Amino acid sequence: MKYTRSPGDPRNMTDSSLSSLGAKVVVASSGDENHPPENITDGTETFWMSTGMFPQEFIVRFAEATTMSAVTVDSYNVKHLRIEKTASQNASQFELVTEKEFGHTEGHLQSNVVSLNGSSATHLRFIITTGYDHFVSVHRVTVQN
Fold this sequence. Notes:
Residues 28-135 form the F5/8 type C domain. By secondary structure, the protein is mainly β. Helices cover 0% and strands 53% of the residues. The chain has strands at 15-17, 24-28, 48-49, 56-76, 78-86, 95-101, 110-131, 137-144.
């Protein structure tokens, strides 16, 4: 029996790493010199780790306005994530796109597809409002067009 995905399944979309889109992390609420925020965009085995306390956030700036159907967030210990967007060039006046509760995974990464409903943005703000521990990490964010 052959399995086919429905046309709207986000896994049918093209995944793009943030670095391939010319995106950069331009703001982060915390940083560790061994695990800096830019590790989120490099698409390798590196990661960004918070330094404790909540909320934690980071802002990704795209090289140009980008339309996204969804993002995949690979993380550890994230409990609740809020995603906001703006089309302004100066990262101001963000509006809520979505919020999602992540399930707790012990000993392995959380991988969550978060629908953005075809949002177009120059900046995305990811706000981790709570975690399952004092520290969280974000290993990769990819965009589905």
